[in-house]
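Take our chain:
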Amino acid sequence: MRHQIQKLLDDEVNPQVASHGGRIDLVDYANRTVYLRMSGGCQGCSASAATLRNGVEEAIRRAFPRVENVVDVTDHGSGENPYYS
């Protein structure tokens, strides 16, 4: 399932966040929980929580109904170039 989740991120999510210099990668999938890390313009971006909940999480849940939780494990405080500060 990890490969399919990363493929979804690469094919559908990352092209959209790339316009803001961002990227989202799968860190792990365990116990019906997806763990994601945001980088580039997404790391430290003030809109990252909205992007995660209203875009990424919806896409994952639509494609993988068994997923119960989506968790952002990003250290947003260390972001160097957030799209929105």
